[in-house]
Inverse folding.
């Protein structure tokens, strides 16, 4: 028996991936400029860690969805698609 899909009205981590990745890239660029104070650098680092975790969570959710699509009855045993070389 397949599990029901999550409610469509709840914000999915996957939907936030692009936004988090864009913000993380901008944050890294500002930090690399070297113009931030120590406090601003620490706040930026903390925000960057949170964004990284959001991105990682979204990727894990996407991987789970792919596994469910490959084998809905046993997603843990699904073998990933490998493109021919």
């Amino acid at each position: 028996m397949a599990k029901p899909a999550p409610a469509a009205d709840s914000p999915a981590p996957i939907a936030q991936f692009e936004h988090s990745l864009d913000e993380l890239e901008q944050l890294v660029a500002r930090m690399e400029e070297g113009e931030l104070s120590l406090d601003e650098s620490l706040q930026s680092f903390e925000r960057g860690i949170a964004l990284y975790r959001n991105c990682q969570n979204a990727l894990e959710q996407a991987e789970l969805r792919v596994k469910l699509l490959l084998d809905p009855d046993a997603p843990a045993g699904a073998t990933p698609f490998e493109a021919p070389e």
